[in-house]
Amino acid sequence: MTTLVFVHGRGQHGRDPNELRRRWCAGLNSGLTLAGHSPVKPDDVIFPYYADLLHAKELEAVKEGSDFELESVRRRPSRLPIDPLMPQGVSIVEGAILQSMAADVEGPTEDIDREGFADLLRLPGARRLAERLAELTDGEQEIIERFLRDVAIYLVYARRDIQRMLRTALRKVDGDLILVGHSLGSVVAHELLEDKAIRQRTVAFVTLGSPLGIQGVYKNLAKPGTHHPGTPAWLTVYDPLDFVAIGHPIKRLYGGPLDEMSVRNPRGEAHSVERYLGHQAVASWIGNHLGA
Prior knowledge:
Layout: E1 2-7, H1 17-34, H2 51-65, H3 70-75, H4 88-106, H5 110-115, H6 117-120, H7 125-136, H8 141-171, E2 176-182, H9 184-192, H10 196-201, E3 202-208, H11 215-218, E4 234-238, H12 251-254, E5 259-262, H13 273-278, H14 280-290
Parallel strand pairs: 1-2, 2-3, 3-4, 4-5
């Protein structure tokens, strides 16, 4: 028996994991139906929910990093890090990710040439970069800034606890696995595959709207750099307007076996997991490996 495992991304804390699982299944089932495959039942899908743990780790980081004078934000903004509420380690990773995203989306800009990344990655320069990313993609500046924080929190603060939680959940499942990771969840799933026992059971790996092509992300993985996770099949799907998927295509970085699909999601939903899963070609690829 092959079991689907959905690994969600950021921004899901406080939500009902069963509802989230049904939404993912609804998106996938729409594509499976178009492709002539049988639909999947939500009760047959594993949805390890780590969002509340990630949020708790964020609050811990805020508490640790909040020892600064609020007055200094107004007085010397250019000398503050990208996220003054965060400890230095988190802020450094946030800056590295933003730098990579800005370079990937359009290369050096006049502002960067004039001021240099070191200054632009401090307030208010970082806000200008995030605003520019929002203009060039389908993202919103506020969402981009939250993405930077949450990915950095995982990479610096929460990795060990979240990995432990997901490994425990998967030990309760027998048989082969298909790992499907969306957004930050694709990074979490990629690192899960460092576990030999999980990797040997995983027949297919799917990444949707993944930041694994962003240098500031892959250089901060538990095993830094780009390396294929060792699964017999890997599909990565991206919308060119999805700001999280900047850096795609990624086969040049990770090698094969790796199938890449570029899709177009509706405007305003470039990063939607339901839209990604609903594409007939994406669902068919999953269905073929699932045997549905």
